Here is the input.
Amino acid sequence: MIGQLLIGRYLILKQLGEGGFSKTYLAIDRYLLNHPACVVKLLHPPLNSVISIEQVRQLFEIEARSLERLGTGCSHIPTLLAYSHEQSNSYLVEEYIKGENLEAKFNRGCHFSTAETIHLLKEVLKTLEYVHYHRIIHCDIKPSNLIQRENYNIALIDFGAAHYLDGGQDQRSPVESYPLAIGTFGYMPEEQKKGCPQFGSDLYALGISVIQLITGVLPQQ
Here is the structure.
């Protein structure tokens, strides 16, 4: 992928990471002035996946729909720039959020102070209120999905595990939700492990994340 030009526009520079069903790359937009950075997420399900390729593709589409619905109305969520299929590959392009994810800060041995914790909660709870208003559950709140910008604002990324509740506002294009235990163990409450996440599931994961950042102890410990 490095050096490829997607749809003649997005030039792939380097790989940023790899998740359960996708690979993430840093790219630049060759169409715009100053060639701003963006993130390209390529669907890449493992061969031994416990769920079907159809379900994986559905989850990828849910992520794109979530960003499309949420990103334009909230500066703490990346904006969807493109969602396309090219040469049998599916990918989405989203706004690049510049900053340090809180897992990296944790790995450097930085523990959150009381003031930092209060700021984090105010920032993320406000974002979750917005996400939940749109009948979406993030389902993967954890330090690596929280990015602290240079101005200390906290952005929420990676809607790859997002879940739409029935009765969502956009009835014109309903997205089917599968009863799957999608998320990260250690941050998932019991109802999410059973494939039935609720709004409170995100609050549980945020609480676990805050405890980790304050104490320096991983959830698995």
